[in-house]
Amino acid sequence: MSFLSRLGSWFRSGQAEPAAAAEALRVSAADVASGDVKRGDGVWESFTGSGSYTGPPSESTALAVSAVYACVNLIAGAIASLPMHIYRRDENGDLARDINSPLWWILNEEFTGRWPASAGWSFGVGSRLLHGDAFKEILRSPNGNIRGLVPLLPSRVEPISTPDGARLVYRVQPDPTIQSPDQESLKVRILDQDDMLHVPGFGFNGLRSLSPLKNALRESGRLASNAQLFSSRFLQNAARPEIALTTKDNLTQEQFDRLQNEFIPQHTGPENAGRPMVLEGGLEVKTLSMPMEDMQLIETRRFQVEEIARIYGVPPFMIGHTDKTTSWGSGIGAMGAGFVRFTLRDHLNAYENEINRKFFKTSRLVAKFDTSELERADLKTLLESFRIALGRAGEQPIMTVREVRKRLDLSRTPDGELAPNPGAQPVNPASEPPDPDPPNPDPIDPPKEPAQ
Q1: Sheet with 84-89, edge to edge strand ranges
Q2: Contact between 201 and 128 (Cβ < 8 Å)
Q3: Which of 43, 119, 180, 364 is buried most, with the most CB atoms less than 10 Å from its CB?
């Protein structure tokens, strides 16, 4: 370690090691000349502090960047708002909604008494977007029926392959948010893969997926965070360029301490802007400035917004970055359809696939997200499309009024429902097949609180 680095460590710690103190007193003026102090070395950091990070961003530092927060919040919030329905496949392969499935309540209203479904979905999607994998423990009754879901922090879960490599088991660390004298709650648990919803992301290798924090956001997130930190520090210093104090003489430990403990606090921060300096002992002020246009800080921060939006597949305009236009088309319907098709579909498909294979293990039942609300066009365009479906100008209809009202979440019409089009015969509601309500051969326990 160089002398300057050791000296910087000495000043930062506030403890003067005897050897370092003796060396500091013996060095020549050339060894500690102010011109030798460079940005980032020990002496520089002892006076200016060090706030940037050099490793992969953590969850907290990544979410402190507005573009990362906006992307994660947008995707997680959109998926949490989507209803998930249970469908039953008939002998012809057609799907009909199973309106009596107790799973609907778990997936749409309440994972457990502690976890509302919306919060559980948002937590899981956020875990996948930041750490690469989402984990939810499946709570089962003694007969194997599903009674709830518990989202788990990815850091608490370790997937382990069985010796034959055919299946996974999961080592789950205790929940740090539960404070209980019960020793069982403090033990590490091993769960079979049938009791764990594991939704992997890109780069899944059979155990874990690639973490966006450690890969895609490693450099772009770090650069965005450092640019944000620099802007904050620059403004905290009243937008004043950095300065250096120079002298031809050696400084004693007492002089160093005075500069560090008195001068720096009195001349940094916006509250000290314009405060006059009183220098002594031959100290001179040298300004270290770099024009902001040369650093292109604003352009850098704008580019990082686009870079982070690109990582998450979110068009920049959807997180408030309006410098660029979109090629998805204009109108709410076009943008919503593009968002579902190009951004959400990968996440939705991953969740549907994992839920179907862990919940049902059969092709007769399937869970699917309903994205119609996000893809719905503006009211005028929507009504025009339904008008065509009902048979405009004598065309062959493909929907009935009852079906249209159902798509609009309207109540059923009374007897004497309107015909699909004026030229067709009136439809008797009694003659229409009733809404599908087949018996449920797969009883599932109603949701209840897990045993404590």
Answers
A1: 95-97, 84-89, 365-369
A2: yes
A3: 43
Under 8 Å between Cβ of 99 and 440: no
Task: Report CA-CA distances (Å) from 242 to 35, 46, 230, 266, 290.
Answer: 14, 14, 12, 14, 9
Give the tokens for residue 131.
Answer: 């750490």
Question: Which phi-psi region, left, alpha or beta, contains residue 436 (left: φ > 0; alpha: ψ -120 to 50)?
Answer: beta
How many Å apart are CA 121 and CA 118, to the nearest integer?
5
**Alpha-carbon span 284 to 296, nearest angstrom:** 30
Taking the model in full, what pTM does it have? 0.65
3-state secondary structure of 112: coil
In a 13 Å sphere around the CA of 25, the CA atoms on its Cβ side amount to 8
Of residues 364, 443, 357, the one with CA closest to residue 145? 443
Q: What is the pLDDT along the chain (452 residues), one digit of tens a residue?
A: 444 444 444 444 444 444 444 444 344 334 445 555 554 444 444 444 444 455 567 788 888 888 889 999 999 999 999 999 999 988 877 888 888 888 999 999 999 999 999 999 999 999 999 999 999 999 999 988 999 999 999 999 999 999 999 999 999 999 888 777 666 667 899 999 999 999 999 999 999 999 988 887 777 666 666 666 666 666 555 545 566 777 777 767 777 777 767 666 655 555 555 555 656 566 676 665 555 554 566 666 677 788 888 889 998 888 887 765 555 555 666 777 788 888 999 999 999 999 999 999 777 899 999 988 887 766 777 778 888 888 877 788 888 888 888 777 676 666 545 544 444 444 444 444 444 444 444 545 544 555 44
Q: What are the structure tokens assigned to 116, written together? A: 């509302």
Do 192 and 283 touch, CB atoms closer than 8 A?
no
CA atoms within 13 A on the CB side of 415: 2
Our CA dihedral for 150, 152, 157, 162, rounded to 10 degrees, sits at 30
Helices (H) and strands (E) in the chain, counts: 17, 11
CA distance 156 to 133: 12
